[in-house]
Structures are given as structure tokens and as C-alpha cells.
Amino acid sequence: xxxxxxxxxxxxxxxxxxxxxxxxxxxxxxxxxxxxxxxxxxxxxxxxxxxxxxxxxxxxxxxxxxxxxxxxxxxxxxxxxxxxxxxxxxxxxxxxxxxxxxxxxxxxxxxxxxxxxxxxxxxxxxxxxxxxxxxxxxxxxxxxxxxxxxxxxxxxxxxxxxxxxxxxxxxxxxxxxxxxxxxxxxxxxxxxxxxxxxxxxxxxxxxxxxxxxxxxxxxxxxxxxxxxxxxxxxxxxxxxxxxxxxxxxxxxxxxxxxxxxxxxxxxxxxxxxxxxxxxxxxxxxxxxxxxxxxxxxxxxxxxxxxxxxxxxxxxxxxxxxxxxxxxxxxxxxxxxxxxxxxxxxxxxxxxxxxxxxxxxxxxxxxxxxxxxxxxxxxxxxxxxxxxxxxxxxxxxxxxxxxxxxxxxxxxxxxxxxxxxxxxxxxxxxxxxxxxxxxxxxxxxxx
Length: 446
Ligand code: PLP
Prior knowledge:
This protein is of the alpha/beta class. The protein is built from 13 helices and 16 strands. Strand 11 and strand 12 form a beta hairpin.
């Protein structure tokens, strides 16, 4: 998509934006005294810009959600049109836009899924999926991965493996297991196949020890994202499906980050030949233009609630503006072959480009990913695989920003997660900047 003139979107002034932000905005996930946020004024396609018209190539998709790119005209128009007709309506009513949004999501679901429960985002999608699984099975426990992120509300943050240190009084019936991570294997495995097999044995042993009759759900990200784009090895998700079937456990796949094109297919699980019982989604479903998420429900689980109340829902569940954005986003992605683009750019540019980067920089321990969902794992020693220290990662992040690339940096990794619409040339440009920054920070004299 062409960059519209950044100067056309300028409004207000950057210094005022920063002054008001620091005076009155309490930021999430932050120590408030140590913030220096960018003040962004506008965007288009894969670019964002500040109040002075300086532009950045957005390799972060913000929080890995702007799959269709910034300011897609069709999505913006759909929100405006809906706002002019009916800006809000209670969830209990029937609404044409909401019905069309659910139909659009179901269009990309496997056979056997016809219902969607809409939420305000990813965390409450997981909350509701867990509740559905508990009511469906009459059991309590939920098994998830240590390396995972499922959201920052009551049950979702307890299911999250990455944040077990966050105190939570609701931590009830949650069990964690190690998932496959061949580069840092907990199982001493020497191949992806062995990693998969051993991780499955571990999962089966933990479930046996917990008591299979007490386990309601296995909740996994199809591709753990925030934890490092840990694409599961062949056979892992199929093996999890088998274990879930063996014990009558509901398999919930969290596609909040991986879904809606990011991995080069509509849902990541399609690439693993697996059909879950519940799918949670958010982010890419409408690229975050208006907050939305949901649970895609298999007919078997949905039937539990034919004659029984499902006790869940919020005032804004299925909000018409969010639903208008869902319909327009999915239709635009279909018409413009956005998912196909993500697959092609990943296969022909990002994958080979990052492999080349790994071959030339000793600090690149591993690159992994699919579609427009990649992580570059950086180490200070390729033999011990010790992660690059936080100060060096901060220098890499600053170097990328200084060269007009907006990165997603997490722990010792740079995630390359641009909008799914990225062109081959834009992807090449982003990788060239990453290459130059790694050289400048890690090999300054070379
Ligand atoms: N699940 C996954 C896999 C995520 O990546 C995220 C957010 O990054 C969430 C759930 C939580 O979504 P939200 O922030 O919309 O609540």
C-alpha cells in the first residue's frame, strides 16, 4: 500500500503529546518514571509517523495485531458507516453486523464449527474458553505451557507460563508443562522429532500424575508468540490432540497472536493437521482498529449450552463498531489475498533473509518462524547459548529506531512481525536495517 503523505496526517504537536502523556497517562507493563514513548501521529500500510512527519517501517505491527496494515481505507470507512447508523447496542440483541462478523470468522474455521462468542480482546477470550471447558467437562484443571502468554486477566494470567511470578489469588487448578523448544531443550533431545516425542511424554506423565479425570482443558498457543515464536516441531500438536482425546480433555488453541494470517494461513493449526475444540482469537481479526476478540466454538462444545446458561459476557461483547471492523477486515483480506502475501513474503524474503543473517552474525543463535511471524534469538556465545544481556538488546532496539524501523524486542530476541500486507521490498529494507544494526552494535570494528 502506498504511503499517503505523512504531513497530511499531522495534528497537534509532538511536544504537547509527550507532555500530556507524561503528566496524565499511566502506562501498562511499565515503571512510570522510566518512560520515553514515541508520540505517533499517523500511519498508512506498513508505516507510522510522528508529528514532525518522520516515518518508521513498522516491523512490530504494534502489538503484533495490525495484520492488515495501518489505516486500511475499507476498514476505516466501515467503522465510520457503522458509527453513523448504530454506534452501540447490547449483546443480547440480534444485529446484522454482528451476525455477518460471526459468519466471516466461521468461513475460515474447520468443519464442525458454526458459533462464535465475541469478547473485547484476547485475555477475556481465554477466560471464557476456560469457563466453557470447565462447564463442558465438569472438571477443574487447566494445563498450559511455561513459555506462554494468554493475557493479563484472572484466569488468563494464571494460565500464562511467562508470568507465574505475578501474584494472583485466583491461581486454582492451573498446571504447567514444558513445551517443545529444541534450541534450549529441557529434554536433552537432539532433533525436532525427539523434542516433540519427549515433550509429549512429559505432558502425558503430568496429566497422569494430576489425574486425567480432573483436567478440563489443555490451553496452548498454536505457535507460542511472545515467548519466542516457538513453532512446534512436526507431530507435537497432533500428539497433544491425541492425548486430549484419550482423556476427554477440551483442547483450546490460542490463536490470538498467530491467527488471521500471521503464519501464512488463516489459523496456524491448519499447518499442523489438527482441529481443536475451542479457538481463541483477537488482534488480527480486525487488526485492532476497534477492540475485539472471541471464541470459535466447536458444535460439540456449543451443544452443552443449548439448554444450559453460559454465564459469560460483558456490556461491549460484540460491539457494533468492532464488528464492522471484523467484517471489513476479513473481506479485505480475502479480496486482497493478504494471507497469501504473508505466506509468500515469509517463504521468499524473510525466511531466506534471516537465514542469511544467521550465517553472517555469530550472535544470531537461531532464527525461526513462518509467514510474517519470526524471531531472531541473539546470544553472546554460540556454544553456551547465553542470551545477549539486556543492555545490548536495548542498544539494538535503539539502533533500529534510529534507523527508522519500529521493532518488537522481547528478552534476547528481535521479533520480525510486520503487517501481513508487507511488500517484498519493504521486507528487504527492514532486514537490511536489522543487518546494519547488528553489525554496528555487535561488531563495531568489523
Ligand atoms: N493470547 C496471546 C497468544 C497473546 O499474544 C495475547 C496478547 O499479546 C493475549 C492472549 C492477550 O490478548 P489481549 O491483550 O487482547 O487481552
